[in-house]
Amino acid sequence: MQFGIFTVGDVTPDPTTGRTPTEAERIKAMVAIALKAEEVGLDVFATGEHHNPPFVPSSPTTMLGYVAARTERLILSTSTTLITTNDPVKIAEDFAMLQHLADGRVDLMTGRGNTGPVYPWFGKDIRQGIDLAIENYALLRRLWREDVVDWEGKFRTPLKGFTATPRPLDGVPPFVWHGSIRSPEIAEQAAYYGDGFFHNNIFWPADHTRRMVELYRSRYAHHGHGTPEQAIVGLGGQVFMRRSSQDAVREFRPYFDNAPVYGHGPSLEDFTDQTPLTVGTPEQVVEKTLAFREYAGDYQRQLFLVDHAGLPLKTVLEQIDMLGEEVVPVLRKEFANGRPADVPEAPTHQSLRAATAAQRARA
């Protein structure tokens, strides 16, 4: 399994001090988080994409290119690449360029985003969100896999004899995860292509996540990519840890109560009971995360959200230290126990390159 950090890049006031970081501070904090993730032995850093306040990551490949130059092992990903409002040609070329700069340490998660006003800013209609996701991704795949593309669709100008540059590193496109919280059409899209399906697993109860993952797994098998158990699944999660659960709850409560994404709603106790949020000790995080397998099966990628809601960078880096030192080593061992031999590992550039070479040798 791969373990890592995903961030949405929010600029949120710290409710305990009233101070709001500057955009520059927040951007550099995200870089520091990525570097800490590699330092403690995590596998993945993923950034969101937003084009509206209070978020800063409007150009994920710019940030990931900078992080690539300062890391050696970390897989660089996105926690959403907006497949609906970005031009597929630009996505194809940006991520292929990033592949070359990072020596293949790149994948991405496509999604529709959660901010309605973004659509008209980029000349799109939110009512066509699913159709945009389907058509744009179909074109993106062709741009990465065909040297010369002739294409005509509904949402952009036609392409005649077009070649996206640079070509994917080693002729192997980045692996794609399709991220969705509640859209079965996206689970179907991931299954149709044999791509990964990522459920952000933050706001919804286990039964909802189970239904979405089971739908994806069954359709993955229906489309002939393997058994349901061999489908490629990723999950999110959010944690806050201290040495005692009482200290964790006391320190995190003002951040939870004032967070734009879930503040002023259910109590912290109700939210931790009904969703995957874990506020407690590292041992409690291990216990709750291992339980994800009960409703998602054996899966390939687990990403944690730790830097939202105005938490100061010092605190966030402490969370990552605990993940790397006390949580992830245990999770690696326990998730490996009883894992069937035919359940694949998370795809990497190296594994995809080897599979492509083997396929070409058989052809």
Structure description:
45% of the residues lie in helices and 14% in strands. The protein has helices at 23-39, 60-70, 88-101, 118-121, 129-145, 184-193, 206-222, 245-258, 268-274, 282-290, 292-296, 313-336, 349-362, and strands spanning 2-7, 44-47, 75-78, 81-82, 107-111, 149-151, 159-162, 175-180, 196-199, 233-235, 239-241, 278-280, 301-304. The strands form 3 sheets. Strands 3-2-1-13-10-9-8-5-4 form a 9-stranded parallel β-sheet. The protein contains 13 helices and 13 strands. 44% of the residues are buried. Helix 3 (88-101) packs across helix 5 (129-145). The protein is of the alpha/beta class and 363 residues long. The mean pLDDT is 94. The radius of gyration is 20 Å and the shape is globular. The longest helix is centred in the last third of the chain and has 24 residues, at 313-336. Keywords: Monooxygenase, Oxidoreductase. Residues 1-295 form the Luciferase-like domain. Residues 339-363 are annotated as: Disordered. InterPro entries: Bact_Lucif_Oxidored, LLM_FMN-dep_put, Luciferase-like_dom, Luciferase-like_sf. One of its GO terms (cellular component) is cytosol.
